[in-house]
Amino acid sequence: MLLFRELDAMPREALRALQSQRLREQVKRAAAVPLYREKFAAAGIDPGAVRGIEDLAHLPFTVKDDFRDAYPFGLFARPLREIVRVHASSGTTGKPTVVGYTRADIQTWAQVCARTLNCGGGTPDDVVQVAYGYGLFTGGLGMHYGGEELGAMVVPMSGGNSKKQLMLLQDFGVTLLCCTPSYSLLLAEVAEEEGVDFGALPLRVGFFGAEPWTEAMRQEIEVRLGIKALDIYGLSEVTGPGVASECLEQHGLHIFEDHFYPEIIDPVTGAVLPPGQEGELVFTCLSKEAIPLLRYRTRDITALIEEPCACGRTSVRMRRVSGRTDDMLIIRGINVFPSQIESVLLKVEGTEPHYLIVVDKGGALDELEIRVEVSPEIFSDEVKQLEGLRRRIDEEMRAVLGLSARITLVEPKSIERSLGKAVRVVDARSFQASAGGGA
Ligand code: DLL
């Protein structure tokens, strides 16, 4: 455990020297990949001349399309015989994004996932239930290896089968839970139906990520599950979970910077922005052997926090992801982020944290419909009450979004529950469903 604390509490200068040394090695590794050779040549970069982090801003970006163009293994810097694992994330269209790991990459990944659990106070004494999906998705196996690396006892449940999840949570004395925030709410719902009292369980902390969620959603989860709900972040291209994690201070996500170097850029100009300013998050993998990813544009929107954290970790933190550069809906010319809608809904008493945003063309104009579940008490109330609730949501939405939406109140439990990443947006204008989280 001491080792994790030492890595996460490294003095900033020592960390910077380590990052520079790793970057120099990484750029040389990248030169083994045809795509990077081409990018270096086009930008006039000599891979041997890169001195360290101070030169990073001159290096070329990598984007999601580079993975698509290189499908399936074209970004690998190592021969297939050295690759021991692949994962893939499904896009909304076309082929999945494929990522590979050498044995050393798997080891590093296990360590950063163990550090994630340790951020929430996890130790070998803990029992970790992994309810992220196992398979090509990185969530399940990532947190599984992290739990083992920590020395905790891992319960590899995968997603779904909620009654069994609850049974094991009780019978195995599970203390740490890993799943998507939306799935944790489904577990709360099933627990209520089954008469399982979360308050009576030893469960302490939840490690929730893989999809966007808001502070309001966190409060809801913490109350309903009686635990601390931590935000954890990662993406397959960079490694999977284990890129950044909140600590128990719940004030930004510590980035495991000795492996993943973060930058925030202006998504339009590509210019690097100073700490505190919101923009697109970019990661350079400093140690990954199989895919030496340079300046990967995540499309996730956040800002970096440089001030020291009360927990003693010295790493830079990122604010909760507020949206993606590609999940912004433009409705009648107005920019709308799904996270704004979630924040409003969860503030209004009588609504449940289950909703669906539907955008369609109503004649010449775009129409925004927000379907939201109401609580069982309100639903069985008089029509007058329902109408009052609808009007309250309508007014709040108009104030926050600056446009009017059709608010449709729907029956409790009528919006489809997800076992992994929740689908929150259906944009019928383009006949595409999007999870708003790169699922
Ligand atoms: O979702 C990896 C992961 C698994 C992270 C389990 C955390 C826990 P992908 O399937 O490649 O990988 O999706 C990555 O999901 O670019 C974000 O848009 C979104 N995302 C992940 N974590 C968060 C989070 C995994 N905490 C994409 N908040 C990313 C908001 C998140 N969005």
Overview of this structure, please?
- The chain is of the alpha/beta class and about 450 residues long.
- The protein folds into 2 domains: about 1-325, ANL, N-terminal domain (Rossmann fold); about 330-435, 2-Layer Sandwich (GMP Synthetase, Chain A, domain 3), CATH 3.30.300.30.
- It has 12 helices and 22 strands.
- Helix 9 links the parallel strand 6 (about 205-210) and strand 7.
- 5'-O-[hydroxy(phenylacetyl)phosphoryl]adenosine binds near residues 132, 298, 437 and 438.
> What is the C-alpha radius of gyration, as a whole number of Å?
22 Å
Instruction: Supply the CATH architecture of the largest domain.
Output: 3-Layer(aba) Sandwich
Number of domains: 2
Number of helices: 12
- The total count of strands amounts to 22
Uncertain runs with pLDDT below 50, 5 residues or more? 432-439
Give the CA-based shape. globular
Beta fraction: 25-35%
Provide a short characterization of the protein structure.
This protein is an alpha/beta fold and 439 residues long.
Could you give the topology of this structure?
Elements: H1 2-8, H2 12-30, H3 34-43, H4 64-69, E1 83-89, E2 97-102, H5 103-119, E3 127-130, H6 138-150, E4 153-155, H7 162-171, E5 176-179, H8 181-194, E6 205-209, H9 215-225, E7 228-235, E8 240-246, E9 253-255, E10 260-265, E11 279-285, E12 296-302, E13 304-305, E14 317-318, E15 323-324, E16 329-331, E17 334-336, H10 338-347, E18 351-362, E19 365-374, H11 376-379, H12 383-401, E20 406-410, E21 425-427, E22 432-434
Parallel strand pairs: 3-4, 3-5, 5-6, 6-7, 18-21, 19-20
Antiparallel strand pairs: 1-2, 7-8, 8-9, 9-14, 10-11, 11-12, 12-15, 13-14, 16-17, 18-19, 21-22
Helix pairs in contact: 5-6, 7-8, 8-9, 9-10, 10-12
The structure holds 5'-O-[hydroxy(phenylacetyl)phosphoryl]adenosine.
Residues 89, 132, 137-139, 209-212, 231-236, 240-241, 298, 300, 321, 324, 437-439 line the site of 5'-O-[hydroxy(phenylacetyl)phosphoryl]adenosine.
